[in-house]
């Protein structure tokens, strides 16, 4: 009996210890700052304006989230291909960088419920208009395709268009310019980015194939086991969808193009 009681007491202490370190959200409330890792190159989710400020749809969601927590928001600029290791080593509290919730990533991270669903689309050289009608038409050794390294655009290129030659870049703009300059035939990326890039960077040399060919829920990433934080973030997302906050922020970035004037 004594051994049994000792075991119960040990278990209770262990649970108390776990409760004392509930996760990213509790830590942020205690410190007064929510630190979020992001690569600010993904229009219109997170990007840098003429004044060097990081702005965008996801940035505004995070500002609203931090306000609801009663803390300051600190954006930690991080290269996308190293963003998961940076979270796991404690350089910030969570990932908010237009990250697609994939099964592979979910093995390493916990994800919130999606805050938006997008899909991969194509920007192709204008000369290929009519000839390339879908990603399937690019699956040929004669074509050269590109995207940003470490993204689902790269994953899709290598999985669904594996016969084409692939060359990735560290950022979206370089990859798009490779197509504009005729060095690549197609750029693969999320629809919200491509719908802006075709006019902003296309210089009349790109055609946007708008039909998404993947299903990609974007979500916030946290360390494994941080269920208290997931609970809070998911409830926050439900709240802003019902009180009009989400609709207002979404309209600002997706139904209005005034923000483009503030970009370089």
TrEMBL record:
Q: Name one Pfam family in it.
A: SBP_bac_3
> Which residue intervals define the domain Solute-binding protein family 3/N-terminal in the entry?
33-257
Q: Subcellular location, in the record's words?
A: Cell envelope
Give the signal peptide, or none. 1-22
One GO molecular function term of this record is: ligand-gated monoatomic ion channel activity
* Occurrences of domain Ionotropic glutamate receptor C-terminal (ranges): 33-256
One Gene Ontology term, aspect cellular component: cell envelope
Give the family, as the similarity comment puts it: Belongs to the bacterial solute-binding protein 3 family.
The record, for PANTHER family, names: GLUTAMINE-BINDING PERIPLASMIC PROTEIN (PTHR35936:SF38), MEMBRANE-BOUND LYTIC MUREIN TRANSGLYCOSYLASE F (PTHR35936)
- This one is known as Amino acid ABC transporter substrate-binding protein
Instruction: Please tell me the species this chain comes from.
Output: Pseudomonas cavernicola
Lineage per the UniProt record: Bacteria, Pseudomonadati, Pseudomonadota, Gammaproteobacteria, Pseudomonadales
């Amino acid at each position: 009996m004594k051994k049994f009681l000792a075991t119960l007491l040990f278990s209770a202490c262990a649970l108390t210890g776990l409760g004392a370190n509930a996760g990213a959200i509790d830590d942020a409330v205690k410190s007064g700052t929510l630190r979020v890792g992001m690569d600010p190159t993904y229009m219109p989710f997170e990007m840098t304006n003429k004044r060097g400020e990081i702005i965008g749809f996801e940035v505004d969601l995070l500002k609203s989230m931090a306000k609801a927590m009663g803390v300051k928001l600190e954006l930690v600029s991080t290269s996308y291909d190293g963003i998961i290791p940076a979270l796991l080593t404690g350089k910030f509290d969570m990932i908010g960088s237009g990250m697609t919730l994939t099964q592979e990533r979910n093995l390493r991270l916990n994800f919130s419920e999606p805050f938006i669903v997008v899909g991969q689309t194509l920007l192709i050289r204008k000369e290929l208009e009519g000839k390339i009608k879908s990603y399937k038409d690019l699956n040929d050794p004669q074509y050269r395709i590109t995207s940003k390294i470490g993204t689902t655009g790269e994953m899709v290129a290598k999985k669904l268009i594996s016969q084409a030659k692939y060359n990735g870049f560290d950022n979206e703009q370089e990859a798009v310019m490779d197509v504009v300059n005729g060095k690549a035939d197609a750029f693969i990326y999320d629809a919200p980015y491509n719908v802006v890039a075709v006019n902003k960077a296309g210089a009349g040399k790109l055609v946007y194939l708008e039909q998404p060919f993947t299903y990609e829920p974007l979500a916030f990433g946290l360390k494994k086991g941080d269920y208290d934080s997931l609970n809070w973030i998911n409830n926050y997302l439900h709240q802003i969808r019902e009180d009009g906050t989400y609709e207002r922020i979404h309209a600002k970035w997706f139904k209005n193009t005034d923000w483009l004037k503030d970009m370089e």
